[in-house]
Write the structure tokens for this entry.
Amino acid sequence: MMKSERVEVKENRSYISILKGLLITFILSFILLLILSILLTYTNISENVISPCIIAITSISILIGSMITSTKIRKKGLLNGGIIGGTYILLLYLISSCVLQQFSLNQQSIIMIILGIIFGILGGVIGVNLKK
């Protein structure tokens, strides 16, 4: 195998790892949001906690997804984590704008975008530096 072919194979593996990281992030978010909805339904938890909990769940999911991805790729944790965080938030908002007709960006949306990228970068850096 020539050097250029090896580089191409490694790049393809990186893309696949990023897609897997995004999938992990979405699955984890779904599970945590399902738990939150069950808690809200069957307990006396105030609905005022919904917004902070959604932000926390999104941030934690992105952190874990980017950590797992960067652990596998083992390089460019800052970039790969930022890609996962940014792509996750972008996909989330694209889906929301298709489903919700009155969707708009507000202060909470801006906070989620910033936190998504920051937690993605943080997870990427942590993942690259974890020992196998």
Observations:
- Residues 3-129 form one domain.
- The mean pLDDT is 88.
